[in-house]
Design brief:
This protein is mostly beta strands. The protein is built from 3 helices and 10 strands; from the N terminus they run αβαββββββββαβ. It has an 8-stranded antiparallel barrel.
Length: about 260
Amino acid sequence: MKKLLNIFIIMFLSCITVFAKNGIEIGVFVPLGLSIGINQYSLTNKNPTEQQKNDLKSAVKQADRRSGVGFDAGFLFHIGYRFDINKDFSISVLGELGYNHDEFAFYRISEDKKNENSYIYTFESMSFGIYPKLNWKKFSFGMNVGIKVPLYVKSMSSYINYDTKNIDRNIEHFNAFQIKNVFEVPIIPYLRFSVDYEVYSDKKFALVLGGYIGGDFGMSFKNAMLNNQSIAKITRQTMSSFDIGFQVGVRILPNN
């Protein structure tokens, strides 16, 4: 027992020594950007027949959900450690906690181009992830990986007839407990690559501007939205997005 206690004390003192040479890093960021909706269909049975494949193609062509552009925003908080390699290069390993506003947008135009249907799904979510990054001089290159847990979803569909100028709109709201009735797994995995530059910095504080590209993946509907109900029962409809934007924030640096 005494040996284990001594080992623990040595490890604890070693950690203090390591962290004293480096230090805690904290960041607060506001990302703003655009998202391009991606709508995908796949058959759930492992060995579909040729008829089922053809029926799916026909049903998807009839649904014809094209990629639209939505708006993304958020508030991200980072905390972790920065490890200095030399005066110009360091490595940061951070945790990420945030609030996110994400829009998945799609539209459909009739063959005669007289009618248009649009679909927008808006998610208000909490995000939990990790954010390892490389720091070189005033630049940072990082990869954000994690999950978003939706707290609220708004589904809005609209129909426009350009000849009659008639507009119909339907809006549905789902709270955190109702979301599971719409989506198979109410969790959004995300991946984001970011590049930041410190426009101003001193020994403890930095003002940061940057950009990012990434995506939200794998929100599968419980019921595929296809007119062919027999093929819809064996079809998985998945909604994702490709995201691009910029971010501004502040960073509190280790005091070495």
